[in-house]
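Example 5.3 — Ornithine racemase
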Amino acid sequence: MYPRVEVNLNKLKENANFLAKLSEKHGIKIMGVTKCFCAIPELSKALIEGGVEYIADSRIENLIKLKDLNVKKVLLRIPMQSEAELVVKYADYSQNSELETLKLLGAKALEIGKIHKVILMVDLGDLREGIWPEDVDGFVAEAIKIEGIKIVGFGVNLTCYGGVIPDENNLGRLVEIAKKMQEKYDLDLEIISGGNSSSLYLLLENRLPKGINNLRFGEALLLGRETAFGNFVNGLHKDVFILKAEIIELKEKPSVPIGNIGMDAFGQKPHFEDKGIMKRAIVAMGRQDIDPSGLIPLDQDISIVGASSDHTILDVTHSKREYKVGDTVEFVMEYGALLRAMTSEYVKKVTV
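Solution (predicted structure tokens):
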């Protein structure tokens, strides 16, 4: 059945092994971020077998899937208070920035006889989650009074929202804040987490500030590239995930629709370039399944014309392959397309 994503477990494991060994040389342990593939256990196990020491996900539902895996589990998205009971039960660590949530986590942890480990997030300019640097001292002074939790680390998010690139200055400031809090409040810090795959370029260039001992890798593991500048990394596979879709119509048609143009199904007014008569293949998947802007056909002579909810239209005019109805077309995916494909229940997932 199609569409489907084929996942090469050996390549995924090799990517994890490459990054784990690279990081180990610099005294860094890595978290394998599983949210993009909804923490499918078989894929998560491949990361662990490759050398990942922590599994991290934004959704507690995904960590629950992995409850039987013997690995440290981290909740990446700062917890909702409504899920506090599940967080302390199924996550060994969570990232936090709100005192009231910490109080609730502590209370729920004590109810089940646990101490929940927390990583305090510091906002260094990307303006997503995090404590403002000037407020960290006062925050820690209050947080250490909360029973049932233990502050074991500090972290930062960069690039995901504001596009701020990690560098020696902002990551150096994170280390400075963490060390200052460690000394002032006698904290036993396990983790100073210097960001995600956008920090990989600093590691490769041996520029990561001393003191950073943890990185959270998602896209680098899955797609083989760092995300500060979008460069693929030598030694990493970029084809771990292959999307296959089936052709359901193949006809020659004009390249510009006929009639007055209004809004499409998504409220946008489309624009078309007149390329004359085009050999067009429709494959049975659409925006409900994938992000068409993040699809890259393996047949380099194919281009993507557009997509509606359930159909994606391809220009196969110049392809050397003689496609026919029932054939499949293969794609590699950028992060957004992979995220949507792995989340869609209409896209089958197969390991190879």
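Remark. Residues 67 and 247 are 39 Å apart (CA to CA).
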